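Reading a protein record of the kind used here takes only a little practice. The record below shows the convention in full:
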Amino acid sequence: MKDCLTTYTKVQFNTFEPEADKIRMEDIAHALSMMTRANGHFPEFFSVGQHSIQCCKEALARNYVPQVAMACLLHDASEAYLADITRPVKKNMTMYIQIEEQLQNMIYHKFLDYVPEGEEAELVKNIDDACLYYEFMHFMDEKLFPVEPVMVSDPDYSVQPMKDVEEEFLALFHKLSAQMQTG
């Protein structure tokens, strides 16, 4: 067996030589719903899937176009095939960053038909940072940035069944996909 992992849908996926046709939204939603934020250091379970959903809901609350909301939903999708690595560690892992970027771009191309750049990428980053900030305020009573970012939506930090998170992630994905096709 090569450098493959077996995904939730039983796909043999090689993260070093990813193939777009092997990327499944069901695998992404499932894995992210089970993957903990902050490397498990929050006092309660909060998943990468919940974070991604919150980012998407924030984009929708700001009335951003469906493509930006979808980019927010998918911004950590590569972690379904890699792992969620904390920012202080990740910034020192050059090879991981390259693998993550290649895979993340492939995911964006598959589901958005392009990689967000410029202003759109900045909108996604700002929402990701805002959600991160308020997660740490809620769970750790820690301010990560000197300036409190804007948050328009009302985040839900409750412990949620993983299956519910997976289903909500998929529902948002399908809703946004339909809006992007009709808009």
Summary: Residues 4-151+161-182 form a domain with the Hypothetical protein af1432 fold (CATH 1.10.3210.10).
